[in-house]
Amino acid sequence: MFNNLNNNSNEWINWIENAISNRLIKYYEFENFYNIQEIGSGAFGIVRRANWKNSHKYFALKSFSNFDNATAKEIVNEIKLQREVDFYDNVIRFYGITTFSWENQNKKYWLVLEYADGGTLRNYLKENFVNLTWNDKFNLAFQLVYA
């Protein structure tokens, strides 16, 4: 299903929609997230932390800046990659997708991911590197290689 897609954004969007409707990807209603706060940004978009309805559980919501063919393709590729490493304990979990749209704009797809309280590995190392023992550093390196 994934390998036969062209470079048409509608085909990528259809892939996402079919995966949701066939329950291959869990769909989360955006309205059930609250206390949404930006925690980081990059070339493709913004990552936000949010609580899930009636709980104190946090999720990371990854939105994408410009939703075009390349972005739709990147979302599908990221889902595929996440599925390939989902069984490793030290890899951020992909939970599903949510959608959000402003007033008269197209639907935007957001990835729903496991929230890492320590932030990105880069930020964690930047803030804690001097406090880590060589054994801690070795264990982090081993986990990276293992993943």
TrEMBL record:
It is an enzyme of class 2 (transferase). Residues 33-147 form the Protein kinase domain. Belongs to the protein kinase superfamily. STE Ser/Thr protein kinase family. MAP kinase kinase subfamily. Coiled coil: none annotated. Keywords: ATP-binding, Kinase, Nucleotide-binding, Transferase. Its EC number is 2.7.12.2. It catalyses: L-threonyl-[protein] + ATP = O-phospho-L-threonyl-[protein] + ADP + H(+); L-tyrosyl-[protein] + ATP = O-phospho-L-tyrosyl-[protein] + ADP + H(+); L-seryl-[protein] + ATP = O-phospho-L-seryl-[protein] + ADP + H(+). The lineage of its organism: Eukaryota, Fungi, Fungi incertae sedis, Mucoromycota, Glomeromycotina. This is mitogen-activated protein kinase kinase. The keyword ATP-binding applies. The keyword ATP-binding applies. GO terms for molecular function: ATP binding; MAP kinase kinase activity. It holds the Pfam family PK_Tyr_Ser-Thr. It comes from Glomus cerebriforme. It comes from the Eukaryota. ATP binds at residue 62.
